Amino acid sequence: MNTDKKVIVITGGAGGIGQTCARVFKNNPIVITDYSQESVDKTVADLTKEGYEASGIACDITNAKDVEKLVEFTSKTGELKALVHTAGVSGTVQDLKKVFTIDLIGTDILINAFYKLATQGSSAILLSSMMAHVVPSNEAYDKALANPQDPDSFKTVEPFVNGSSDIMYNFAKRGVILLSHKYVDAWGAKGARLVTVSPGVIETPMALKAAEEHPERMEMIKQATPLKRNGNPEDIADVIGFLTSHAARFITGTDILVDGGVLQNIKKMDHK
Ligand SMILES: NC(=O)c1ccc[n+]([C@@H]2O[C@H](COP(=O)([O-])OP(=O)(O)OC[C@H]3O[C@@H](n4cnc5c(N)ncnc54)[C@H](O)[C@@H]3O)[C@@H](O)[C@H]2O)c1
After folding, report:
1. Å from CA of 231 to ligand 1 middle
2. 34 CB less than 6 Å from ligand 1?
3. What is the tens place of the pLDDT at every residue in 44-60?
4. What pTM was estimated for this model as a whole?
């Protein structure tokens, strides 16, 4: 089988990073999925007009039945090359449970559901965040983050975030990295890889909304970035294109930070 004709599934496919990721995959059938059918249809129509082989299905990633339908849709489209998981919400959602559920439980549901489609050479690329790296390792919550569907997990993590949905976001994204460590052996046994990508500030609708709420923080981050600019979705999409390719065949169970170098300077500021 021509491996280049295998399917790429993009969650959050109608979002800023998701849409840009799709455009990296000129030679593969692409399955776009997102929360609303309308946004999926629009993205699929745009991609088709540009010459991509795209189809799509709406799916709420927190709903296991929806995710099963997505898995079925994918297997009817072809053999899986990669799951590119970009669906998520930022801390601007102001609802701790929602952030935990979408960003972490949704990721856990997807990794487990797509495991059955993983074969030699497949990969799952999961979007974390550079902010995951400001959360220290701690036995008190790491087990809950790595097992988000356990009934007490949210209650275990909640006291550590001081009521802040932004901090819950950081914890949930640390959880995404812990999930990749937890499942990497099972995926590896099939010759498949699990990699997380941690973007810095990327100019998408999500980041621009956060910028409206914390304009001074966003400017401070830009000034603290060694490359003196925010990221754009292409900065992430190009790395994801590489990570799903044969060139990245020995990269698994690790996180790739794509932040223009800012995280190290943020950590220094936090220690002042
Ligand atoms: N933009 C940034 O600066 C930045 C920085 C670090 C990490 N990230 C991460 O990158 C990913 C993509 O971010 P983005 O900037 O493209 O955001 P975005 O808001 O543009 O796209 C996210 C997409 O996820 C979808 N989504 C949300 N909840 C869903 C659900 N329950 N089921 C299905 N789809 C759902 C939304 O409809 C949206 O289309 C996110 O996981 C985000 O946390 C982004």
Report:
1. 15
2. yes
3. 999 999 999 999 999 99
4. 0.97
